[in-house]
Specification:
Blueprint: H1 2-5, E1 6-7, H2 15-18, E2 26-28, E3 32-36, E4 40-46, E5 55-60, E6 63-68, E7 88-96, E8 106-110, E9 113-119
Parallel strand pairs: 2-7
Antiparallel strand pairs: 1-7, 3-4, 4-9, 5-6, 6-7, 8-9
């Protein structure tokens, strides 16, 4: 069912590659895990170094865009001579189905992991229908 609710990697929105963009830093695609229950989906996106004020999440029509910015850590009195870990930003785009309750989406970030809770709309949650004897 997650494939029906979120069209992910297979259809990562075409708008992501449709326009040329220039940046002074690297842009990473955060690795994302998706968990599903009957009531909601939970996305966990790894974005090391991103803090709460560096996250921007937008929902326009059916397109959910996650953007995270990381600032280069600075040590007063030192200059960076060599770095093995590239500092950059994160961006990931998902197409949502109409089965997600857009008003109930919640986001939090802790230890470089962005957590998005996407509740399913009431009509998308399976329910059992009682049968009455006549």
């Amino acid at each position: 069912m997650p494939n029906e609710l979120l069209e992910m990697n297979r259809q990562e929105v075409a708008s992501q590659g449709s326009a040329e963009q220039t940046r002074t830093h690297k842009l990473y695609t955060p690795i994302t895990d998706i968990h599903e229950s009957k009531e909601q989906l939970v996305l966990l996106a790894d974005m090391p170094g991103v803090k709460q004020d560096g996250v921007d999440i937008t929902l326009e029509q059916n397109i959910l865009t996650i953007y995270g910015h990381v600032d280069q850590p600075e040590l007063p009195g030192y200059t960076l001579t060599y770095a093995e870990y590239g500092i950059g930003s994160y961006k990931r785009v998902f197409a949502l189905s109409n089965e997600i309750d857009r008003e109930g989406i919640q986001a939090s970030v802790k230890n470089g992991v962005l957590k998005l809770v996407l509740p399913k709309s009431k009509r998308a949650i399976p329910r059992k229908i009682a049968v009455q004897a006549e």
